[in-house]
Structures
1.
Amino acid sequence: MISTYLAPLDQVDQARDAHIAFVEELGRAGVLVSAGRQDPPVGGVIILDADTEAEARELLAPDPYLLQGLAEYTATGWTPARGALVDWKS
């Protein structure tokens, strides 16, 4: 999932701690593969272990960024074919 910020960065950053806590919870649930902010900081990327876009959107529904209208997510399917993630959860 690729996010795009819908608010100024200083406003997004006010919710960042809550967002990071939410992402850490995804990790504890075993559905987070990786996550991070884009550079320059116009949004972020969250790679989830989800079978469908609907499942990914359901997982992200409680994200403080979404709940506060600070970001939106675009779904992009991806299957690693090379590199460090190719054998992830195999």
Note: Helices lie at 9-14, 16-28, 53-60, 64-67.
2.
Amino acid sequence: MDLSYLITPFFAWLVAGCAKFAFNTIREKRLAFDLIGYGGMPSNHSSIVSSAATIIALNEGLQEPALVVALALAFIVILDANSLRQQVGKHAEAINLLNNNKEGKPLRERMGHTRVEILAGVVTGIASAWCVHYAFTYYLN
């Protein structure tokens, strides 16, 4: 098995996670370790699934049936990041308002992604897959 299929999603996750940490650190003007997780720029999930689809397209071509499966998975994940998880965040916000005077840790309200964050994740995933493909094609084979 070509290791590029295993390395690409991990590399995309790493690049997106580091970029998200950097954006949050700059925005908050502090090391933003507590902001690592769901939500934010770029979308890790969108980056991972778009990198998987891209590495299949680059390695196998556009006629590969596995590409259809990867694209279907990518659409599901991206739609989930934009709609369902934003609704979960709205519910968390409402629950936190109801429980504002009670003890306990508040629920995390930032869950979903904006379309710009998703687009940035897709671009990060495609760029990550291209970098891995290029490295395996010209340097590691």
Note: The mean pLDDT is 89.
